[in-house]
Specification:
Layout: H1 2-29, H2 33-102, H3 107-133, H4 139-165, H5 170-238, H6 244-304, H7 309-335, H8 342-368, H9 372-380, H10 387-448
Helix pairs in contact: 2-3, 2-5, 2-6, 2-10, 4-5, 5-6, 6-7, 6-10, 7-8, 8-9, 8-10
């Protein structure tokens, strides 16, 4: 026991001796004025390095959000909704093909629907590849992409069999079930996985931006304090009011940090517009396009199930629920109008959708009155005042809103990235000028003491 106590005492004594010798060593290096000048010089160079690190880390923080928005999440969200849209369109064209058979339409009209179906499947496959190539967040994205792939394979197999038989039967009903219960929900899940991450990252950025900026501001205060006390000491020892090097470093500090503040504010503004104004509208419009296509094929399915009133009632309820969701998207977009021309396009989309639902009520009336053929012709008609014509105008209005917001989104994320690169470069320039100015400014004062 005494040995342990002895070892402990010896260890404490050794530790105290090390601290004492270290303290004495520092004092020995700061005894004379030239030594203190040298310390100021070395500290200035070290602060220059810190400027490079601090500004660089802050630029990296901004770039991380810019990348999350522009590369990691938004492309996957758009790919998911494009996939949903093209698949819904393909399904609508398929159902229309069987409706055309019911009214003994020309084979050329049926072939047009079949060709439109195949074209939309190709576009869906392209969107599928875009989503698969941009997997960033692991299983949350991988699972829905896999579900779409396996579901679509089975769906196309069933449609191929139905195409050979030429009849609306079990194959199409099973394919419809796969589309609505497996494939389309998987695309929504893929959208949600990325959108949740985007929202969380963006919320974290907004919640912490003042903390990060506060840290940069405190570092600025530290640099100013170093410059003030260093120049005060230089004046006391050299009796010179100004030191050109230290004045230069002071000017660089003030102008540089003003530049950091300006670049930060403009970058935050660019990211805000890109996310809250442009992308939120883009997201709403792609969801509106996809949901609209689902509504469109639901209307056609309603007419295909004319022999089964229970199924028709279920489909009517689905139509009404989706129409309410669609109207909410359109109302939300009209509340988020930001850019020139966006308001007119958004109002046009809402007006066309209201016209479309009005035509749907007429289709229901015809069906209730037993005017089945007229209901089908109104549903799949492409003349002005007919359902597919009005739906196409609605879809084009959504495209107009999308085009406006997509251009603004691309412009603002690009501007944000440019600002971030400038900020990073500014930190490098500040560090070089600051370090060189301090080093050269104090060097002559040190050399004066050699003689």
């Amino acid at each position: 026991m005494s040995d342990v106590i002895g070892v402990s005492r010896n260890s404490s004594i050794n530790s105290a001796n090390v601290k004492l010798s270290y303290s004495q060593w520092i004092k020995s290096k700061l005894k004379t004025t030239p030594q203190k000048f040298r310390a100021i010089q070395i500290m200035g160079v070290f602060i220059a390095f810190l400027i490079f690190v601090v500004v660089g880390l802050y630029a990296s923080h901004l770039k991380n959000l810019q990348q999350v928005i522009s590369r990691d999440t938004v492309p996957s969200i758009i790919a998911a909704e494009k996939l949903r849209y093209h698949l819904s369109n393909a399904h609508a064209e398929l159902i229309n093909m069987f409706l055309l058979k019911k009214v003994d339409a020309k084979s050329s009209e049926q072939n047009n629907s079949w060709n439109a179906y195949k074209e939309n499947i190709k576009k869906a496959q392209s969107s599928y590849l875009d989503a698969a190539q941009n997997i960033t967040y692991g299983e949350a994205e991988r699972k829905p992409i896999y579900d779409v792939m396996t579901g679509l394979n089975e769906y196309e197999r069933l449609i191929g069999a139905a195409r050979l038989s030429g009849k609306y039967g079990e194959e199409v009903e099973e394919a419809n079930s796969i589309m609505q219960k497996t494939i389309l929900p998987a695309t929504i899940e893929l959208d949600k996985a990325n959108y949740d991450i985007l929202n969380n990252q963006y919320k974290h950025f907004k919640d912490t931006k003042f903390i990060y900026m506060g840290g940069v501001f405190l570092f600025f205060i530290f640099v100013v304090a170093y410059l003030y006390f260093s120049q005060k000491y230089l004046f006391a020892k050299t009796k010179r009011k100004f030191n050109l090097g230290m004045l230069s470093s002071s000017l660089v500090t003030i102008l540089g940090f003003l530049g950091v503040i300006i670049l930060t504010n403009t970058t935050n503004s660019f990211l805000h517009v890109a996310k809250d104004d442009a992308f939120d509208s883009i997201h709403l419009m792609w969801k509106a396009k996809a949901t609209g296509s689902e509504i469109n094929f639901t209307e056609s399915l309603y007419l295909l199930e004319s022999a089964n009133k229970d199924k028709q009632n279920i489909l009517l309820n689905e139509f009404d629920k989706k129409a309410q969701i669609e109207m909410k998207y359109l109302l939300d977009e009209n509340k988020n109008v930001t850019f020139q021309g966006e308001g007119v396009a958004a109002k046009n989309a809402m007006n066309y959708f209201q016209s479309y639902t009005k035509i749907d009520r007429t289709i229901r009336e015809y069906e209730t009155l037993g005017r089945h053929g007229e209901a089908i012709n109104l549903c799949i008609g492409t003349k002005e005042g007919e359902s597919n014509y009005v739906f196409d105008q609605f879809d084009r209005s959504l495209d107009s809103v999308l085009d406006i917001n997509s251009k603004e989104f691309d412009s603002h994320v690009k501007s944000a990235l440019t600002n971030i690169y400038i900020l990073d470069f500014l930190g490098f320039v500040m560090a070089i000028i600051f370090g060189v100015a301090v080093f050269l400014g104090i060097k002559p004062r040190i050399e004066e003491y050699k003689y």
